[in-house]
């Protein structure tokens, strides 16, 4: 797995995490094109859709979830969770809120 720099006070949001992980994803893509070895791709649309469905089924209406809590209940980590959340936000199934202690996600 990979590591990212720690964020202050666990204020993770989708866009901050992606800014740090996109170069890593791109290096994976480039490495796959350059080598004959099979490298798992992070940008598989079927995996992202399955993860998005898993997130929606795990969330309860009326509750707000932090990024850490979503990682814990769905067991989806890092980039895959962020990409799935981006799909859900774009489809207006999940809303992103900024509150005093961080970013929260809730069903629409």
What would you say this structure looks like, in words?
It is built from four helices and two strands, in the order ααααββ. It is globular and about 35 Å long. The protein is 52% helix and 11% strand. α1 (14-34) crosses α4 (78-90) and α2 crosses α4 (78-90). A two-stranded antiparallel ribbon has the order 1-2. Mean pLDDT is 75; it is low at 1-9 and 28-36. The protein has one domain: Arc Repressor Mutant, subunit A, CATH 1.10.10. It has 108 residues and is mainly alpha-helical.
What keywords describe this structure?
108 residues; mainly alpha; Arc Repressor Mutant, subunit A; two-stranded antiparallel ribbon; 4 helices; disordered N terminus
Q: What is the H level of CATH, i.e. the homologous superfamily?
A: Winged helix-like DNA-binding domain superfamily/Winged helix DNA-binding domain
Instruction: List the domain count as a whole number.
Output: 1
CATH topology heading: Arc Repressor Mutant, subunit A
Distance between the termini: 32 Å
Name the structural class. Answer: mainly alpha
Helix content: 40-55%
3D shape: globular
CATH class: Mainly Alpha
Strand order of the largest sheet: 1-2
The major beta sheet can be summarized as: 2 strands, antiparallel
Write down how many β-strands occur, each being a DSSP E stretch of 2 or more residues.
Answer: 2
């Amino acid at each position: 797995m990979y590591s990212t720099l720690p964020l202050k006070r666990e204020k993770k949001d989708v866009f901050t995490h992606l800014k740090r992980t996109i170069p890593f994803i791109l290096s994976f893509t480039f490495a796959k094109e350059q080598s004959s070895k099979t490298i798992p791709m992070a940008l598989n649309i079927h995996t992202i859709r399955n993860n998005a469905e898993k997130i929606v089924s795990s969330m309860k209406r009326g509750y707000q979830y932090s990024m850490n809590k979503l990682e814990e209940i769905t067991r989806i980590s890092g980039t895959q969770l962020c990409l799935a959340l981006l799909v859900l936000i774009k489809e207006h199934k999940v809303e992103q809120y900024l509150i005093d202690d961080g970013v929260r996600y809730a069903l629409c």
